[in-house]
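User: Can you fold this complex?
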Amino acid sequence: MTFKLSDIADKLSKRGLLVTGPDNGNATVTSLTYDSREVSAGTLFFCKGAHFRVDYLKAAQVSGAVAYVSERDYGIDLPALIVKDVRQAMPIVANYFYDQPWQAYKLAGITGTKGKTTTTTFLKKILDCYEKSVGGKETAYFSSTLTYDGVDRKPSALTTPESLPLFEQLDHVRQSGIDFLTMEVSSQALKYHRVDEMSFDVVGFLNISTDHIGSSEHPNFEDYFQSKLRLFDYGRLAVINWNTDYRDQVLAAAEASSSIEEIITFSRDDSAADYWVDEIRADDNGQTFKVHHGDEVEEIHLGMPGIFNIDNALMALIMARAYGVSYTIINQALSDAKAEGRMEVYRSEDNQVKAIVDYAHNKLSMEQLIEAAHSLFPDHLVWVVTGSAGDKGQSRRQDMGQVIGQAADKAYLTSDDYNFEDPSAIASEIAQAIYEVNPDAEVNDFIHDRHAAISQALSDAQELEQGVVVLVAGKGSDAYFLINGQKEDYQADTDFIQDYINHYNSQK
Ligand SMILES: CC(=O)N[C@H]1[C@@H](OP(=O)(O)OP(=O)(O)OC[C@H]2O[C@@H](n3ccc(=O)[nH]c3=O)[C@H](O)[C@@H]2O)O[C@H](CO)[C@@H](O)[C@@H]1O[C@H](C)C(=O)N[C@@H](C)C(=O)N[C@H](CCC(=O)O)C(=O)O
Ligand SMILES: Nc1ncnc2c1ncn2[C@@H]1O[C@H](COP(=O)(O)OP(=O)(O)OP(=O)(O)O)[C@@H](O)[C@H]1O
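Assistant: Here's the predicted assembly.
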């Protein structure tokens, strides 16, 4: 793809974003980036970001950038497009440059405080099953864990990429002739215009709860919530969890959107929703339930436990139905659906050691995890091994501490991705929140080494007459630990517990 700089300037001008420039628009643009390390001859370079330095622009110039887009004029000898808002400019230019790639396939976008990755995984599984049945291609997905765009399959850096890499990935999906793309849409993406210019066939709103509030994310809950609601500006069909907190505001935002043509609601227990569920039967390996929609009743088997996963399954099911996928295919896909590191149940052969590894690391997920553990293991004590990440979502410490204090029987506080913070100080904040709601709570002394904390909890549990299920929360199947800005290798909690149980079984 090649474009004249003047055409790009024209686009920005028509959208009211161009302030000045360029003096000479004859240059040909052959690529876009905001990272000086990716610049080559013909690149249009975007200056953005809190940590941006003029040296990056100079480096871009040396590497062959033909011009730059920026909110300020750096006065260097390179054509400049000065814009009102560089983050708004990026998707407009990218959409023009890649020629609306998202139009070439069916596109679903999912948001929510919790369940985005699981729901994206479920929908991809269903759509892959469908494509297999009609001789189509593996479907694309952009989740916080993995990205597959038909050209690259790679771990994801962000839940939703910044608009320049995002539109490149969207273009890859089109080039690959893929029929479906399912993606997570984060609140940061909505706040910072990453998905501007896109139009989703279907958008889904799972739930909303306090999270992502902190120095590097949202200043307060309202900012977080309003960012999430913007998803409705980009979709045609809206699928909404009837049981979400702030339901009236969520429904009102969907109704107020000029792009939304239809709203479908679902609930795991309330027949007031369009799709609703009853007769839930669950065990370690999954759950079976009946889905009602008007006069239709379908029995669904989902290969994952955790009642909250029914919400995720319903969202995926409704989106798939909107695409015309049959219940037979949906059932086939969901019956062995799994989301790695989420609600993974472990038991020793003699049933003495019981653990669940889960990715819960905020208020809503911790509440749901503990509730799910109580319902899967009635009459058991529920112990939680957890920490909380450093340098982000600081409110999680207070939130999770309160939930643990109210709903769990004991806490083992340890490290999570503490990054530049002190994990013992993070643990103290969690402990304080636990004691605030439950002064008699049992909280083990902080154990820095996460594996040691898990082992301690599992072995202490074996000492008790009463059954105990140990919830290992926060990192799921992450095979790294984020410390001082670097990802260090780590044996994932899932693998560690499997080894622990294998060793235990072999000793018996
Ligand atoms: C360090 C930091 O906080 N960065 C955040 C910030 O990025 P920024 O645009 O200000 O960029 P920056 O990191 O200050 O870097 C400055 C610029 O210099 C450029 N550079 C840098 C080095 C160099 O040699 N040459 C060069 O050109 C960089 O490419 C960048 O463009 O503003 C962006 C707003 O879109 C954030 O995405 C991004 O957060 C980092 C990457 C991050 O981890 N963000 C998280 C919070 C995030 O976005 N999470 C959501 C999930 C959470 C949710 O549900 O909302 C997600 O979608 O993943
Ligand atoms: N629908 C749901 N409602 C409440 N909690 C959920 C739901 N789905 C999953 N969870 C909890 O959240 C955890 C993370 O799930 P998942 O990765 O699907 O969410 P996410 O929205 O992608 O999270 P993140 O924003 O942290 O990447 C799960 O391990 C589980 O504890």
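The chain has a mean pLDDT of 95. The pocket of adenosine-5'-triphosphate (ligand 2) is lined by residues 112, 114-118, 144, 159, 206-207, 308, 311-312, 339, 342, 358-360, 364-365, 368-369 (CB under 6 Å).
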